[in-house]
Model the fold of this input.
Amino acid sequence: VQFVESGGGLVQPGGSLRLSCVASGFSFSTYGMSWYRQAPGKGREWVASISSAGGGSRNYADSVKGRFTISRDNAKNTVYLQMSSLNPEDTAVYYCRRRIGDNWGRGTQVTVSS
Done:
């Protein structure tokens, strides 16, 4: 099982980014997927989750609700995180994962700064 995150970068406050996570080693469409993040000096926190198959169920942390959107493309084994109205508190390394016990990928760094 492997996750490769990408799409991070430096963005100004109020800007947008779309993160991607390509998963491998399991039947992607049959599992829900989640995004997490770890800010400097803080523990890793859950950001958003999407259900398996069609992804009809989506849940978000209160801190990102209304600004972030999680989606998936089962044909590409990829889960996305569209982030908008970014603020400095969103600065973190972002990770995706299937479930507790999976190894973490390297993550992708998001820095929100003017």
The chain has a mean pLDDT of 96. The longest strand covers residues 17-24. The radius of gyration is 13 Å.
